[in-house]
């Protein structure tokens, strides 16, 4: 009798271990398996066209002050479903996005503690997303995460394009190395930043791009990061297993959660064609639909700014050099001696407004307009800015009237200096001030260490702050472009007023000593998957000593590469970052920046290889115009593209802005050529791009007579 019972029990255990739940992607190419190990540990794995992408990997949590959620689970219920819907983004690379997946919901019970945990898997044709859900229950309410223990076991020593794991910055150049080489390369990969906290010599950030020896492209990231700490990855480089590593708060805790709640999605995008990674919309699809009822006030913008002159050191943000420290409300700026370099003055801003109006730009950004820049960083100063008081030489009302009379919008700047509590204190009045003076968009910034002291840029508290500032901005119908904030995770689907983020190494670093010439061939595979980047392209003068004799930085890019960026680096907010006088030296090349669209009906990725090149064609929203952009890595390369994305039977005029044969990002960056051709859907192009180079093409429909004198491509 006893023996029979034991046998039955053993059979039950065996059945539970052996039964794996299998989920297939809609096209059947991806297969996910979920099972429980003998001790009740949840495990998943993923294959793509029968090749291992993720080997069996454990899931769960270490909690503070209570039993972990790692093992001892049984499956109480599973449910499978299918979803297939198409939605229209307010702005984007595509007019329509299909959200098509098969879902598996696994309900787990940890019998010993009577706690319930759901793991939800969504398998798309382009990858897998999974998240943890903590339902309302009697045995789990408030809890503190010590560590999330989601594993991503790699099937080999892949090549990775990575930046160091860091709680405070993403502003790093990418390192390309084998996974096994991360440890030895870490020290050189960590370059200086005004706020940085690395945590492990095998710790890297997401979005992480990898390539396998068999030619699979794998990207690890997260989607819908809401009320939760940012995920990094730490590699066990003997077993090649990545494990989640959340950003801690000041106490070292990694998340304060209250059931019912959910984690962000953990994402694995995979394909054997690199172009599919760039085209993937999975990160957006895993976010909630739009939460703004009438988004008609959200409009893509092309802008210039009183900015690059400060970044290069030609001008200053601060008004006076007289004081070592200033106090808002006490320092008398009216009586202070101006330093003669303050760029945000009414007269100079009006010149930018004139330039914007003349060349068709939507907006002008002005930095350094408000008091407080004299001692704005490095002092852990709490009440650093009030976001409403201009310097004596910046007349807000006059500038606004002038801009309005010229049909130009002003873009507000809120540098918080990472004094986040101070920003929240002033947020309502700051947004009201913007409404009063008609500013539709704000560029915010979080330079330096966070205040409250000890917090990190990517901890749960800060993630909640960025979300709060975004949602409040929506209440005031304000669009947000946040620099140094957490990297995006597709939240712009829900809040499309998040029209930009920096959250990576942008063009400013070209003025701080330079970035790697192939940096821009990696960003579309990593940072851009979660949302657009305010990369601030369009630099025409690469020798920055010409702007400021004390700045010996060189921009590691050709001029044609700078044009290509307007298409390869998708953003509904695009800056022409250089000084107006530099554009006036190259008016024929500047024409491309004036013409290029910022919102699209369709995007076709023509060629792509992380670290080497990206070539994309996009169709302007509501128009028949197309634009093509190419950015190239360290070595010269000939792109071979055909124009079969064009409508059949139609004739177009293509204007090609390319590197001249002698161009080189270091030796000859300004050598470019402009050629015009007649093209149609059968045309083909072989186009050379220099090291650090690229090209841009504008394609406009033409009647046959307009195009008849042009050579056919
Ligand atoms: C860093 C930002 O990335 C840059 O664009 C800005 O000008 C400075 N902070 C000052 O706010
Ligand atoms: Ca920055």
UniProtKB/TrEMBL annotation:
Keywords: Calcium, Hydrolase, Signal
Signal peptide (UniProt feature, chain positions): 1-20
Keyword Calcium attributed: yes
Entry superkingdom: Bacteria
MF-aspect GO terms: carbohydrate binding; hydrolase activity
Source lineage: Bacteria, Pseudomonadati, Bacteroidota, Flavobacteriia, Flavobacteriales
Assembly mode: Monomer.
Residues of the Glycosyl-hydrolase 97 catalytic domain: 307-504
The protein's name in its UniProt record: Glycosyl hydrolase family 97
Glycosyl-hydrolase 97 N-terminal domain ranges (all copies): 23-289
Presence of keyword Lipoprotein: no
Domain Glycosyl-hydrolase 97 C-terminal oligomerisation: 599-700
Cofactor(s) needed by this chain: Ca(2+)
């Amino acid at each position: 009798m006893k023996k029979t019972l034991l046998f039955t029990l053993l059979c039950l255990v065996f059945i539970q271990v052996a039964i794996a739940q299998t989920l297939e992607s809609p096209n059947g190419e991806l297969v996910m398996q979920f099972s429980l190990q003998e001790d009740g540990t949840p495990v998943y794995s993923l294959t793509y066209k029968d090749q291992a992408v993720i080997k069996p990997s454990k899931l769960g949590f270490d909690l503070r002050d209570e039993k972990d959620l790692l093992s001892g689970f049984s499956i109480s219920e599973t449910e499978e479903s299918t979803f297939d819907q198409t939605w229209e983004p307010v702005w984007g690379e595509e007019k329509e996005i299909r959200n098509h997946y098969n879902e598996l919901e696994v309900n787990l019970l940890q019998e010993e503690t009577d706690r319930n945990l759901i793991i939800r898997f969504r398998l798309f044709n382009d990858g897998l997303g999974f998240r943890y859900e903590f339902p309302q229950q009697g045995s789990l309410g408030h809890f503190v995460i010590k560590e999330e223990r989601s594993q991503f076991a790699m099937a080999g020593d892949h090549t990775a394009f990575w930046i160091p794991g860091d709680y405070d910055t993403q502003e790093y150049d990418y390192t390309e190395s084998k996974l096994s080489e991360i440890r030895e390369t870490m020290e050189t990969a960590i370059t200086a930043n005004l706020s940085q906290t690395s945590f492990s010599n095998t710790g890297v950030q997401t979005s992480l791009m990898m390539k396998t020896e068999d030619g699979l492209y794998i990207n690890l990231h997260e989607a819908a990061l809401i009320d939760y700490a940012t995920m990094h990855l730490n590699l066990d480089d003997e077993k090649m297993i990545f494990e989640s590593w959340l950003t801690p708060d000041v106490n070292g805790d990694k998340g304060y959660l209250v059931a019912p709640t959910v984690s962000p999605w953990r994402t694995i995008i995979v394909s054997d064609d690199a172009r599919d990674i760039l085209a993937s919309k999975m990160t957006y699809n895993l976010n909630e639909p739009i939460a703004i009822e009438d988004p008609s006030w959200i409009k893509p913008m092309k802008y210039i700014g009183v900015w690059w002159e400060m970044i290069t050191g030609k001008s200053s943000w601060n008004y006076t050099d007289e004081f070592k420290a200033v106090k808002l409300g006490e320092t008398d700026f009216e009586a202070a001696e101006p330093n003669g370099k303050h760029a945000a003055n009414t007269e100079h801003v009006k010149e930018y407004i004139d330039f914007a109006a003349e060349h068709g730009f939507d907006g002008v950004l002005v930095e350094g307009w408000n008091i407080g820049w004299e001692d704005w960083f490095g002092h852990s100063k709490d009440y650093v800015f009030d976001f409403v008081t201009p310097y004596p030489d910046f007349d807000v009302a006059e500038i606004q009237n002038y801009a309005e009379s010229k049909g130009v919008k002003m873009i507000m700047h809120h540098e918080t200096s990472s004094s986040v509590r101070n920003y929240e204190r002033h947020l309502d009045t700051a947004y009201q001030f913007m409404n009063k003076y008609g500013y539709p968009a704000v560029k915010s910034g979080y330079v330096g260490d966070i205040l409250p002291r000890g917090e990190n840029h990517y901890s749960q508290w800060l993630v909640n702050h960025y979300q709060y500032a975004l949602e409040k901005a929506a209440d005031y119908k304000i669009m947000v472009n946040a620099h140094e904030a957490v990297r995006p995770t597709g939240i712009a689907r829900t809040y499309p007023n998040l029209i930009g983020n920096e959250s990576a190494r942008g063009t400013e670093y070209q003025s701080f000593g330079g970035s790697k010439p192939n940096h821009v061939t990696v960003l579309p595979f990593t940072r851009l998957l979660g949302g657009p980047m305010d990369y601030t392209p369009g630099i025409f003068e690469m020798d920055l000593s010409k702007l400021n004799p004390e700045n010996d930085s060189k921009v590691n890019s050709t001029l044609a590469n700078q044009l290509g960026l307007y298409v390869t680096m998708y953003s509904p907010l695009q800056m022409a970052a250089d000084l107006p006088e530099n554009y006036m030296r190259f008016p024929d090349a500047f024409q491309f920046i004036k013409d290029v669209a910022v919102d699209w009906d369709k995007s076709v990725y023509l060629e792509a290889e992380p670290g080497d090149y990206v070539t994309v064609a996009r169709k302007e929203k509501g128009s028949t115009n197309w634009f093509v952009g190419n950015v190239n890595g360290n070595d010269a390369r000939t792109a071979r593209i055909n124009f079969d994305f064009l409508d059949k039977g139609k004739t177009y005029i293509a204007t090609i802005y390319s590197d001249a044969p002698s161009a080189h990002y270091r030796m000859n960056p300004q050598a470019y050529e402009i050629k015009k051709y007649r093209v149609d859907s059968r045309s083909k192009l072989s186009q050379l791009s220099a090291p650090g180079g690229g090209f841009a093409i504008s394609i406009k429909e033409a009647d046959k007579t307009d195009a008849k004198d042009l050579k056919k491509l």
